[in-house]
Amino acid sequence: MTPAPRWPLHPAPKEGEALSSWLNRVASCYQMDVHELLVHDLGHCQLDELDTAPPPSLLTVLAQRSGVEFERLRSMSLAGWVPWLLDSLDDSVPAALETYAFQCSVLLPKRKARSITRWRAWLPSQPTRRACPLCLHDTANQALLLVWQLPLMLSCPQHGCWLASYWGLPGRYLQWEKDDAAPHPANEAIACMDRRTWQALTTGFVELPRRRIHAGLWFRLLRTLLDELNTPLSHCCSGSASSIRQVWEHCGHPLRAGQSLWRPFEILAPAVQLQMLEAAATAIDLIESKVLSLHGEQATLFLSEPNTGFTNGLTTAEREKEPVNHWQEAVKALNEAVAEARHNPERARSLFALFAFGRRDPESLERLRVMFAKEGIPPEFLSHYIP
Ligand SMILES: [Zn+2]
User: Fold this and answer.
1) pLDDT band, very low/low/confident/very high, at 327 (cuts 50, 70, 90)
2) Are 196 and 9 within 8 A, CB to CB?
3) From the CA of 228, how far away is ligand 1's center (Å)?
4) Where on the phi/psi map is residue 166: left (φ > 0), alpha (ψ -120 to 50), or beta?
5) Of 8, 265, 275, 375, which has the fewest beta carbons less than 10 angstroms from its beta carbon?
6) Span from the CA of 176 to the centroid of ligand 1 (angstroms)
């Protein structure tokens, strides 16, 4: 079979962009809508699953048309975020909620697991339409991020302002909901939580005060914390109840965002979900400032290593084992950096900047580009790079 011809125009996907948003921008280049582009050009007529689980056959032909790698296209849908962000897209997996949100503990001691049928982490029962007003400022080039469809972040990690609700279809017609037109800066607690979530989504890990953790653990910690903050106080010991109360008082919303019955985070009303996320950011901030008394096993991840002072902190068990082989560590770090750069344009550019340091002549930079391509780092990640 001959491969499908390349589209003459195809804007590069933005980091974190949803597949539907990118296809919408491609279609705009040809004065079409996504439906017309998919039906007339690709013979594909299902539009509803683009951002959740796009069929592999569609991704294959999109990769041929655009030159964007199959895996990169897949990561623009939720299917590409399994099993890090969620264990499965199948909502009938038994004990899914228990497995995801009841194995860790942060604020409270380990809780008795709750069980519900049909549940998927983070997928809201009511679709949300939120976006960063500053990211969408350029009306000619409006890319919507996949994460904006989920109740997972409150602010834009790039601009530090609250995401705002909108109507319409960005790129064609967009109307901000009342009072949302001007960007509101997010407080440091929210900005910090969202920077970590963005780090998890784009690099696969998060730097916490104690140590670096895998993105999968970050999302589960966050989801655990959201559930802990929604625990009825009658289910808590007095110490834990006062921690929960303290967090809600500090963030200025009613206790448990006004909920009396327990329901999983995903099916709460969008406005309630946002208050819960704000409480989670407040809780993390209070944990890190050592204001709260902690009862959960994973809470220490938010506290920096205790420093014994006179030994320079070198007496921890980990460091006692063996002298560090710095060369081996450097090689390991380099391999990790290359692996990340293969799917992350920002990482690719910083790695390239590191290697290009001091090189000015085009020939030498070209040799470097060839070397990067041989390592499997897509050349288009570096196409706008000027040292
Ligand atoms: Zn932004």
Assistant:
1) low
2) no
3) 30
4) beta
5) 8
6) 15
Distance in angstroms (rounded) separating the CA atoms of residues 339 and 376: 9
pLDDT by residue (tens digit) across 105-126?
Answer: 999 999 999 989 999 999 999 9
Give the model confidence (pLDDT) of 221-262 as tens digits.
999 999 999 999 988 888 889 999 999 999 999 999 999 999
Q: Domain count for the chain, please give it.
A: 3
Q: How far is the CA of 160 from the centre of ligand 1 (A)?
A: 7
What distance in Å separates the CA atoms of residue 352 and residue 371, rounded to the nearest whole number?
A: 10
As a whole number of angstroms, the distance between CA 150 and CA 226 comes to 14
Q: How far apart are CA 31 and CA 365, in angstroms?
A: 38
Q: Which of 94, 161, 156, 96 is nearest to 123 (CA)?
A: 96
Centre of ligand 1 from the C-alpha of residue 132, in Å: 5
How far apart CA 167 and CA 270 sit, in angstroms, is 15
Cα 386 to Cα 352: distance, rounded to the nearest angstrom:
10
Which contiguous run of DSSP H or E holds residue 206? Answer: strand 205-207
Contacts (Cβ under 8 Å, ≥6 apart) of 272:
257, 258, 259
**Residue count (the chain):** 387
Instruction: Round to whole Å and give the CA distance between 324 and 165.
Output: 50
Spacing, Cα 158 to ligand 1 middle (Å): 5
What is the identity of the amino acid at 59?
Answer: L
* CA 156 to centroid of ligand 1, rounded, Å: 5
Ordered DSSP codes for 143-172: PPBGGGGSTT-SB-TTT-BB-EEEEEETTT
Q: Rounded CA gap, 200 and 218, in Å?
A: 7
Q: Are residues 220 and 267 in the same domain?
A: yes
**How close is the Cα of 127 to the center of ligand 1, in Å?**
20
Q: What is the mean pLDDT of the chain?
A: 87
Instruction: Tell me, yes or no, whether 387 lies in a domain.
Output: no
Q: How far is the C-alpha of 45 from the C-alpha of 49, rounded, in Å? A: 11
What is the domain extent for residue 292?
130-302
Within this chain, do residues 294 and 146 fall inside the same structural domain, yes or no? Answer: yes
98 with 108: CB under 8 angstroms? no
CA of 186 to the centre of ligand 1 (A): 12
* Euclidean distance between CA atoms 374 and 258, whole angstroms: 56
For residue 155, the CA-to-ligand 1 centroid distance in Å is: 8
From 137, 155, 129, select the one nearest 18 (Cα to Cα): 129
